[in-house]
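Reopening closed ticket. The problem is back. First fold of the pair:
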Amino acid sequence: MAKPAKSSFVCQNCGGLSTRWVGKCPACGEWNTLVEETAAGPPPGSGLTRSTRGRVIALETLAAQAEAPPRHPTGIDELDRVTGGGIVPGSALLIGGEPGIGKSTLLLQLAASFAGRRRRAVYFSGEEAAAQVRLRAERLGLCDAPVALASETNLANILATLADGAPADLIIIDSIQTLWSDALDAAPGTVSQVRAASQSLIRFAKLTGAALILVGHVTKDGQIAGPKVIEHMVDTVLYFEGDRGQSYRILRAVKNRFGPSDEIGVFEMASEGLREVANPSELFLGDRDGKSPGAAVFAGVEGTRPLLVEMQALVAPTSLGTPRRAVIGWDANRLSMLIAVLDARCGVSLAQHDVYLNVAGGLKITEPAADLAAAAALLSSLSGAALPIDTVYFGEISLSGAVRPAGHMSTRLREARKLGFASAFVPAAGDLDSAAAKLAITRLSHLKELAESIGPCQ
């Protein structure tokens, strides 16, 4: 008599296991995320059986000469920049983003570009019918691209289709949360199904040399849904960001085994699809009003790309007992720290003011060097004095009020000079090259010096 399959309760947020159902996950603390799943055999295509025996493998040394992996240029320069020069055959990429941000549009353009270079691109859509994908291709003007298309969610059918016929150079799965395997007694989108489908597809890509791109859903916090182990299994993790109220989109690499991480590519959403933006600084600066207080230009660096963006601040008196602190595009904790430093080290109190800080264009900035630009915007709004329109700011501010040096200082100044800026406020420490000689440089060792240069606060 066959033994009944054991079941366990799996958290759909973190993948933690529990022997019984509880309302709150013991591992991550989320409520109502435990789902009962039956423990079945190994996932299909994993090559794991109960009778598998190990074999001795040959060990190598670190002295072996490593060759650069071959790459397939995508035909999309911004995507090539993010991936490090193109997509590596046999690699697995995971791309996540909010619904409607443009993931399917980007991947359809990528598939058409691959197919136009005489490579076989296969697109599996699990969320849309084939007719819907054709309508998008017609709107983008890609109907004539020889892309192999199918609407399928059964993992076994997808693997059988890929194994039949000519080998594929590019495989796109949109999305991984829709796939299911009949070898597992779990609903599509659960931790077990997502892990099994990802493992099987990645193994197939490694064996055949096809580049695999998986689309992942995101949670309300902006993280890719499903078990975190999926991000460890793939070679590259990309996030497609942007405000749907804005026309631009940011493709950001947070993990890349074959290139630099934290690199970004900038696109603009248009009626004919996503267009590449060669100079994103001009896009984010836009039409600026040099007569309005509370705006400072931050010279930042995203990956290897210098990027100039405007930081806007509004400081207004409040009658509330607890003033408001609203931030868009920056870390709210850093704003709180900056307000405290201004009060304790510079004598500028914002305790009776509401503070609103916004990064123009909806871009998200995580770099600590934005502290100085944010402080300049706050001081400008509080004093009512507009900052010079041809000046950039960058530098990290410590709790003592000291302005700490930032990396790639010369790269930032070179980009500012190219866009017509004439002066810059930079940290006192840090080396500068000849690019700084073409700008009027003001070195700051303490935040108090910036406050004195802007003028008395109201």
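Second fold of the pair, where the issue appears:
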Amino acid sequence: MIARLQKLWIEWRDGVNRPVFFSAAAFNVTLILFAGIWTETAGDLFRALLNFITSYFGWYYILTTAGILMFVVWLSCSRYGRIRLGKSHEEPEYSRFAWLAMLFAAGMGMGLVFWGVAEPLYHYQYPPTALPRTDQALGEAMRFSFFHWGFHPWAVYVIFGLGIALLHFRAGLPLAPRSLLYPLLGNRVHGWIGHATDAFCTVGTLLGVATSLGLGAMQINAGLNQVAGVAYVTDIQIAIIVVITVIATASTVSGISRGIKYLSIVNVSLMFLLLGFVFLAGPTLSQLKMFVSGMGDYLLHIVPMSLWIDFRVDSDWQANWTLFYWGWWISWSPFVGIFIARISQGRTLREFIFYVLVVPTCINCFWFAVFGGTALSLDLSSGGELVAPVIQNPAMSLNVLLERLPWPEVMQWMGLLLIVIFFITSSDSGSFVDDMVTSGGNPNPPVANRIFWGVSEGAAAAVLLLAGGLKALQAASISAGLPQSLLLIAACLGLAKYLSQAMAEEEEENK
């Protein structure tokens, strides 16, 4: 036992990037102690921070995400599309299904299950511009749900993942955020600028994943409340976080090719089984109509929605929804981007963009059409029966829907299992990325480092729940996204410069 501990210590000592690790770890420990000891003060601070950022930087989030999407679309249509993420002869490491399963499970699976029913119902009852519970509100409910879970978040992931993958597999740079700055700063990224960039992104990843874990714990508790009568209280949710964190940490220790890969495949398979059940058991024709009309409406309005800013003084709709999502996706971008980069060797640029941007967007929109469309149809036929319990507690939304469909108990247990596995895959993927970043971009980081960040994410999620629940989680995501948005802008500039050089080199070799 002592020899094993000594081996872990030596592996950690020799493998960790100390400036990055200790900076990020110090912030995390400080957050946990502050929010855990002075819970009420922390809650007030999180709420004030949320109001400040949404009031003064909302326009910036809107403009940044819109610009990133435009840049990704340009990249996909450009002559750079045939450039490979690696050497010209390299084949992909994972099958396309395993690759898609891992990137989708890491990208937004937990949030999709949490909001798939609740968000369309909420927008129908409280639409951003239309009159509540009208045909116009129904259209806005689907359009804005598609908007929040469509091209914009995945475009953010494309930029981060594509930049890291290109510079890692082609230029030999580490799997770390600092690599995105290399085309602009050169070898200076190996100094304090690179350390600061990696530390900021580690903290952002931690807060983004903690948000997802907090939402997941609330939904698991809601499921247990429905199927087993377990009390819906914060103490139970923290206990759930502890149990799942232990399982997720074990999965992280086992590595990508074992625990993370197989859990992701099981996760996505269960997700499609549940999707297929609701599609067939629900109002199928209505779901198809909502999907087709919603996609058309979304594509027709994507430009004005992308640049729309809510100027109403008495409205916090955009802050609670669009700005929260944009901050969440940006804070998740190092986690998802680096993880996708790690598993994408051998793909071409155009293939990467198509499967990371277009395919998940179509799946997400169909998910909202099936789950949200079914909920809206049942709500309309019942005179508003579903809206009240869902808006009162969004974590209950999936169970509220499934109990009105055939085999409610069986499907609620299945939904609960899906949420649990999504919880695990979000946690193990996120902590694995933090492990890589704080280990200098090592694709196989030390085991002790994996354990530390797995436990840290669970602890951060627990204290955020104690310090204010959903509002604290929203504040964490939006605030973490602010500094990371600057890195994404730099990544776009660096990508354009590096791809121009890479294309010139390939053309020279082919002469």
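Update: turned out to be a display glitch only; the data is intact. The chain has a mean pLDDT of 84. The radius of gyration is 22 Å. Please close again.
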